[in-house]
Amino acid sequence: MTTDVKVPTLGESITEATLGQWLKKVGDSVKADEPIASLETDKVAVEVPSPVAGVIGALVVAEGDTVEVGALIATIEEGGGASSPAPAAAPKAEEKPVEVSPAATAAQQAPAVPAQTNDALSPSAKRAAGETGVDPSTVPGTGKDGRVTRIDIEGAATAKAPSVPAAAAAPAPAASSTANGRKEERVRMTRLRQTVAKRLKEAQNTAAMLTTFNDVDMTEVMAARTKYKDLFEKKHGVRLGFMGFFVKAACQALRDVPSVNGSIEGDEIVYHDYADISVAVSAPNGLVVPVIRDAQSLSVAGIEKTIGDFGKRAKDGTLKMDEMKGGTFTISNGGVFGSLMSTPIINPPQSAVLGLHRIEDRPVVRDGQVVVRPMMYMALSYDHRLIDGREAVTFLVALKNAIEDPTRLLIDL
């Protein structure tokens, strides 16, 4: 009996996706609910599970194709592998009725990930295993519950690189030569990158954006972190970083300057009595922005736990779409990549975004004396249609005061 595999419902207002990767090839055995493909939506990668146990009969679309919700993407022949056609004959039997692009053919011929490890691998880890040829069962996992992550597989591939013949490497994307012999490479933009580009341009075209800067002395926060980081990690099971302090301080500043936490909808201004803080997190396919819900009610430990969980799942490609919806204010920390200063772009429909940057020792004047202090530039980009310069400066000063004197966070000043 043949069972159709169709694109599942992807979430509110999402009607199509891109077939990012086939996790199985024609002739492979699958279990019920085992992922067979990874779809890329505007926000995250979504796995498509097999509805039944059986053998992959046909892959109807190729990697990179756009598919709509409910569209047929594969067929599965129900039953065990013993009663199914031999894997070697399956591709020939299916090649005639099914048109598959060269990209899909290359994917089907890539080194297969052992079936016993597929259940424990995220989409990004499976992709890395297919590209590098590394057997996940031989790689020690550092993820949750010992799961093998993309970083684990890439590290194993790097370690064995000298002994792997050049011919065994995954084929590079097609390159073309220009008139003078130099090469160019054209790679199709992922759906996530297309959406990021579209939204950022819309923000520039719609909002009257302006950026205000300030700097902050990180001495006291760094001292507190150094003093309590070991006890903090022992008690809460997560490292004490700087984002917990900044999110907590931002929540207080947003309460004092509510327009920074507002948004424009038509000819109305919407003010929020809660702070849903979007935090920019790096993922394999680009930047994603999950939301810390009701951050104003969380402790520093709760904030750090939430951010840590977002970071891990962003790398594994397991963030859910609902976790990236909404948000009333965004914090982007470019300092982790070494950025000195930037003008971040608003994340619509929000009206402001805070950019954090690297900490570096600089000479400053304190009590008439020139001293060296760890300083950081902060940048607040905001929609001038809603937020006046006075309010933007007031917000940054409130944030600066809370970080330079963390006691204010405890006594709510």
Describe the structure.
It is globular, with a radius of gyration of 25 Å. Helix 4 runs parallel beside helix 5 and helix 8 packs across helix 9. A hairpin with a 4-residue loop joins strand 4 and strand 5. The chain is of the alpha+beta class. The chain contains 11 helices and 21 strands. Helices cover 30% and strands 25% of the residues. The strands form 6 sheets. Strands 11, 14, 17, 18, 19, 20 and 21 form a 7-stranded mixed sheet that branches. A 4-stranded antiparallel sheet has the order 1-8-6-3. It has 3 domains: 109 residues, Beta Barrel (OB fold (Dihydrolipoamide Acetyltransferase, E2P)), CATH 2.40.50; 55 residues, E3-binding domain (Dihydrolipoamide Transferase, Irregular); 212 residues, Chloramphenicol Acetyltransferase, CATH 3.30.559.
**Radius of gyration over C-alpha positions, nearest whole angstrom:** 25 Å
* Poorly predicted segments: 81-117, 162-172
Reading off the top of the CATH hierarchy, the class of the largest domain is best stated as Alpha Beta
Oligomer: single chain
Mean pLDDT, nearest integer? 79
* CATH domain fold name of the largest domain: Chloramphenicol Acetyltransferase
The portion of residues forming beta strands comes to 25-35%
